[in-house]
Design brief:
Blueprint (H helix, E strand, L loop, with lengths): L1 H18 L3 H20 L9 H11 L18 H13 L3 H23 L3 H19 L1 H12 L1 H5 L3 H12 L11 H4 L6 H33 L3 H4 L4 H4 L7 H14 L2 H7 L3 H17 L4 H12 L2 H4 L13 H19 L2
Helix pairs in contact: 1-6, 1-19, 2-5, 2-6, 4-5, 5-6, 5-7, 6-7, 6-19, 7-9, 11-16, 14-16, 16-17
Length: 350
């Protein structure tokens, strides 16, 4: 555990130093880092990471090659055909599970690279935050969701540019890897509403009060909907206590995300000048926080839904560095370092 902190600290300091150099060196470091991470994904011990064994078994014993597959194939372990197709393509050339994990890892890191290059003001710092907050959970465990969420993040420019059909198509492609990507669709329409700071606060407070009063009714409605549609049954079935039972409004993530949201909201003027995607970031994070609060009684359902646009967090937090003069930027750099270390600690202890 100490080694993890030591390696991350050295890496973060190196990223800070390179961030002060030109874009070319930053890009080279970014590419090298993603390649190293891709190989970590490829050669991880499957027995240490939940779901990985299931993906490998599904690939080796239940995936056909391109010459034998059909669109009616029975998919084992998941339902999304896009992810299955990756296995089909790999299986055409090899049955080795490491090559399969390599291809999946390469696809994930390529999309992450495109996301960082498009939206990050400090690419290496964004990568540090992403790896600390989401990296291992997304790409070692929730593999399909990891790819889908990165596609949704890549498509946020279509929200900013008001290109509905392009955003819809991107989310649809993401849903081929994980159906939960469709949860991100309403974020497009939030940008049509001219929300001011006071509106964000009012929505947050109203959501908290509403959920505290009507939590029982919300639980009944969500459970009934799940049973009627046969969707997310394992996340709402009371017998699946580990997945279905949440902490309600006592979930510390609600306090955490609300604080980040207010920090983002009350720095609207400065951050809006630094990024053309500020409103999209803020509204997406508002949507994530509202989802987290309303469904807080359902552990996995609230987490899986809110995490999609909560991913924006890693991209907008480094913008706060720009709000400081160059000689004072050590302060936000250290604040983000502590942020990353806290998340590393949380993820290690899960």
């Amino acid at each position: 555990m100490i080694l993890v902190y030591l390696l991350f600290t050295v890496y973060y300091i190196l990223c800070m130093a390179i961030t002060r150099s030109g874009q070319r060196k930053q890009n080279e470091m970014l590419v090298c880092s993603l390649i190293v991470y891709m190989f970590l994904i490829t050669f991880r011990d499957p027995s240490l990471w939940s779901d990985t064994q299931g993906y490998i078994i599904g690939f080796k014993y239940h995936t056909k090659d391109l010459f034998h597959f059909t669109f009616h194939d029975s998919i084992v372990g998941y339902t999304e055909f896009g992810f299955y197709l990756i296995g089909v393509i790999v299986k055409t050339f090899t049955t080795h599970e490491r090559i399969y994990l390599l291809v999946v890892g390469a696809l994930s890191m390529f999309i992450l690279y495109k996301d960082i290059r498009r939206y990050a003001v400090f690419p290496l710092i964004v990568l540090c935050l992403y790896l600390a907050r989401f990296g291992f959970g997304r790409h070692f465990v929730q593999i399909r969701a990891g790819i889908a969420i990165l596609i949704v993040v890549w498509a946020l420019r279509y929200i900013t540019n008001r290109q509905l059909w392009r955003y819809f198509m991107a989310v649809t492609v993401a849903s081929f890897f994980h159906i939960s990507a469709f949860i991100a669709l309403p974020t497009y329409f939030l940008n049509s509403i001219p929300l001011k700071k006071k509106h964000v606060v009012e929505i947050l407070v109203t959501t908290l009060v509403f959920t505290s009063i009507y939590s029982v009714q919300i639980n009944k409605k969500v459970t009934a909907w799940s049973m009627d549609t046969k969707l997310a049954l394992s996340y709402t079935d009371n017998r699946q206590t580990m997945k279905s039972t949440g902490q309600g409004l006592h979930n510390p993530m609600i306090i955490y995300q609300s604080a980040i949201l207010l920090l983002l909201t009350f720095n609207e003027k400065r951050l809006g000048e630094l990024s053309p995607h500020y409103i999209t970031f803020r509204n997406g994070y508002l949507y994530s926080t509202v989802w987290l609060i309303i469904l807080s009684s359902f552990h996995v359902l609230s987490a899986r839904g809110s995490t999609i646009t909560a991913t924006y967090e890693c991209f907008f937090l480094p913008f706060f560095i720009r709000m400081f003069k160059k000689q004072d930027r050590f302060i936000p750099y250290m604040a983000l370092y502590l942020y990353a270390v806290i998340w590393i600690t949380i993820n290690i202890n899960k």
